[in-house]
Design brief:
six-stranded mixed sheet; ATP binding; Rossmann fold; single chain; alpha+beta; Mo/tungstate-bd_C_term_dom; Carbohydrate ABC transporter ATP-binding protein, CUT1 family; NA-bd_OB-fold; binds adenosine-5'-triphosphate; six-stranded antiparallel sheet; nucleotide-binding; 2 domains
């Protein structure tokens, strides 16, 4: 086991990339800590699979280096990288028993029989596969087959990291939860570096201690879930983490104020100078950070209108018209919601300013 360092990596699938969109990875510098439980999140096409395949050696990056524990692995072939990869669909041999499937990676590496048997039984116990060990894989459900794929990743004694590429896509939601719990337990037991690719933030939040967010071929933020929620460094992180996501409202500078949706708010001193010229500006505010009041109740409230209320148990999500934008506001159960005309309070310390999608700071 060792840290995995991605240094100045760029990758294009085009032989002669000539424009930014030709790069699947634009430039990535990132360290995967030894023993970390990571979720790699991002929209479709942002480069997650390319990142995993570059770590495992299935893809050779156009530029940059991959180091395991300080050793340059960029030119080392996949089979000598000791990386286990679990894909969306089970990769197992249907005609073999579960035991033989689990033992397969060990037989290939000539692990002595007694040790192989012990490791297979340990992994089977961790994943609750013990009762299936002597069954043929063909007779098992999709979830059981995918559990065997996970087991084949875990059984090897020498793995530097296990990479999971949306491994639970084909699994029912109920079983998914159970498998995620098992994976988490396995991580706590084995302390292996695990990188888990998903589109699903709930899946990421339950599995990982660190979340890595990619967007358009770059790593845009790395941190524990709370940091990503409280201080998104990129507007995509604000939108993607949290449910509903952060409201993002186009804005522009008007003197020392930021104008948006027919309203304006004061900027803190110095912020104007920190905004790059001609940058595209957005205000970001979480649905739960705003207050919805009756008209005239708060002098800081911006004039707004309630358009729709969706009751979701302990809170409601209210669609509020603010100028030409529709803003989502989360209101706790029992707090009165104005019928139509309303006031919307955006607390300055929770109202973030993004310039060209990057966080500049809060309005206070
Ligand atoms: N083998 C390939 N040949 C050409 N282009 C590719 C290849 N693999 C990926 N790409 C392109 O590279 C970009 C990144 O793709 P990648 O599969 O790494 O993203 P992803 O985040 O894993 O997406 P998804 O979540 O949809 O799997 C996309 O624009 C994709 O079309």
């Amino acid at each position: 086991m060792a840290e995995i360092r991605i240094e100045g990596v760029r990758h294009s699938y085009f032989p002669y990339p000539s424009e930014p969109s030709h790069w699947a990875l634009k430039r990535v510098d990132h360290v995967w800590r030894d023993g970390g439980a990571y979720a790699l999140l991002g929209p479709s096409g942002c480069g997650k699979t390319s990142m995993l395949n570059i770590i495992s050696g299935l893809v050779q990056p156009s530029e940059g280096r991959i180091l395991f524990g300080g050793v340059d692995m960029t030119d080392v072939p996949t089979e000598r990288r000791n990386i286990a990869q679990v894909f969306q669909f089970p990769v197992i041999y249907d005609t073999m028993t579960v035991r033989a499937n689990l033992a397969f990676p060990l037989r290939n590496r000539r692990v002595p029989e007694a040790e192989a048997k012990r490791r297979v039984e340990d992994v089977a116990e961790m994943l609750d596969l013990g009762r299936l060990l002597d069954r043929r894989a063909a007779s098992l459900s999709a979830a059981e087959k995918q559990t065997i794929s996970l087991g084949r990743g875990l059984v090897r004694p020498d793995v530097a990291a296990i990479l999971f590429d949306e491994p639970l896509t084909v699994i029912d939601p109920q079983v998914k939860f159970e498998l995620r719990r098992k994976l988490k337990a396995v991580h706590e037991h084995l302390k292996l570096t695990m990188i888990y690719v998903t589109h699903d933030q709930n899946e990421a939040l339950t599995f990982a201690d660190t979340i890595v967010i990619m967007y358009d071929g770059e790593v845009v933020q790395v941190g524990p879930p709370e940091d990503l929620y409280e201080r998104p460094q990129h507007s995509f992180v604000g939108y993607f983490i949290g449910s509903p996501g952060m409201n993002l409202l186009p804005a522009r500078i008007e003197g020392d104020r930021l104008a948006f949706c027919g309203q304006s708010l004061a900027m803190p001193s110095g912020m104007g100078q920190r905004l790059p010229e001609r940058a595209s500006l957005q205000l970001g505010v979480r649905p739960g950070a705003m207050r919805l009041v009756s008209p005239g109740m708060d002098r800081d409230a911006l004039p707004a209108r309630v358009e729709d209320v969706e009751r979701l148990g302990p809170f409601s999500v209210v669609d509020v018209r603010l100028g030409d934008a529709l803003v989502k506001v989360k209101v706790a159960d029992g707090v009165p919601i104005p019928a139509d005309d309303a006031g919307l309070v955006l607390p300055p310390d929770h109202t973030l300013v993004f310039a060209d999608d990057r966080l500049v700071g809060a309005l206070a």
